[in-house]
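[Q] Does anyone have a clean structure-token version of this?
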Amino acid sequence: MKKTIITVVGKDTIGIIAKICNYLAENNMNILDISQTIVQDYFNMMMIVDMNQSDKPFAQVCSELEEIGEGIGVKVRCQLEDIFDKMHRI
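[A] Here you go.
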């Protein structure tokens, strides 16, 4: 399974989860796990997503999610699960 870690951070606003999740659904990506918190006015979300059914390459997905994030005033970052795991073992 090709898993991707997606993080979204920024000032809380209406529709952040909806825009990100709509993009994932439209591109045949399944959310395996999701966690989101709001601390004062700051939004933080982490998702584990299965990209196996998507026709788009990883780099394109990341770029498009970053553009969506810019449009709603948040930072969106993507990492392949293998790289994320290796980075956080240190």
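[Q] Thanks! Anything notable?
[A] The radius of gyration is 13 Å.
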